[in-house]
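Entry type: protein chain
Record version: 2
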Amino acid sequence: MPAFFEAELWSLANPEFWVGIGFLVFMAILWRAGAFKIVAAALDAKAATIKTDLDEAARIRAEAEALLADIKRQSAEAEAHAKSVIEAAEEHAVQLAADAKVKLADELALRTRLAERKIEAAQAEAAAQVRSAAIDLAARATEEVLTQRLAGAKTDPLIDKAIGQLAGKLQ
């Protein structure tokens, strides 16, 4: 059986009884003084403050999520831009390499043609020098042979003059 129903609890000599009475009187005084309204108002103010803080936290979280999404979007854009720049640079490098190969081939062909022309000119000059030397030699030999054959015969001044002009005409 609970202690509330025992007669000893309701005895005026029981100190627990007087503590209970004192507590009820204290609560009545607090109620009469409006302490419960003050406590309720303080609790309501605290609840309002907590609600404001929660709303502010939700707003800040929404801003942070929006900022994170924006940063992710910017990061993706920057990565895509970097990829496109790298691809463009690679294509440009390939194009430059192809252009360099073409220029090198053209330069080599030009230098080969110039070298061939120089060789042909040198060959032509050498052939001309050999012909000139051969003509000079033939003219001198002819002059010598004619001089020896005609030395025994009577010399004619017209023949001597024609022999002297022979070397100039053969060149």
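Comment: The chain has a mean pLDDT of 87.
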